[in-house]
Specification:
By secondary structure, the protein is mainly beta. The protein has one helix and ten strands; from the N terminus they run αββββββββββ.
Length: 154
């Protein structure tokens, strides 16, 4: 069998095609549309953080402000949230965490998952929230669960 093109010739053609594409801007084209700079200053705190609960709301069931008890009935395959709204009246940022019986993920029974999000940083004078979500899987056993302690701390 006769070779039509030698390997050095093929290599030279490939290099020429790639080089032409680069020069034409077809492969590594980059155009700056905006350029800027950030000078960042972290302000000193004007005091300590002081978080207060401003409201508690639920997506299902009922919540008593007097007792702090959320009563909810959730069908299998469903979910519900309890949302605690917070305000930092202090002069410094504060980090708040939610916990369910001391954990961020809690499984009180097969097919039942309760969790809260990651830590929430609330700047002085700002607001935030902590959400507790209950998921009921399709295979969860119907019935009443024992009381579960929901907490927010910092």
């Amino acid at each position: 069998m006769k070779e039509i093109f030698a390997k050095p010739f093929v290599r030279a053609v490939l290099i020429a095609v790639v080089s032409a594409a680069i020069v034409a801007g077809g492969v590594y084209a980059y155009e700056t549309l905006w350029s800027g700079r950030a000078d960042i200053i972290i302000e000193p705190p004007t005091g300590e953080g002081h978080v207060v609960v401003t409201q508690v709301s639920v997506t299902a069931g009922s919540y008593s402000n007097d007792t702090g008890i959320w009563t909810v009935s959730i069908p299998r395959g469903g979910h519900a949230d309890l949302i605690v709204y917070l305000r930092n009246d202090g002069g410094d940022a504060i980090v708040v965490n939610g916990a369910i019986d001391g954990e961020t993920d809690y499984y009180p029974a097969d097919g039942v998952h309760i969790f809260t999000g990651s830590a929430e940083t609330i700047a002085g004078g700002d607001t935030g929230d902590v959400v507790f979500r209950v998921f009921i899987e399709a295979d969860a056993e119907p019935g009443e669960l024992p009381a579960i302690q929901l907490e927010i701390g910092h």
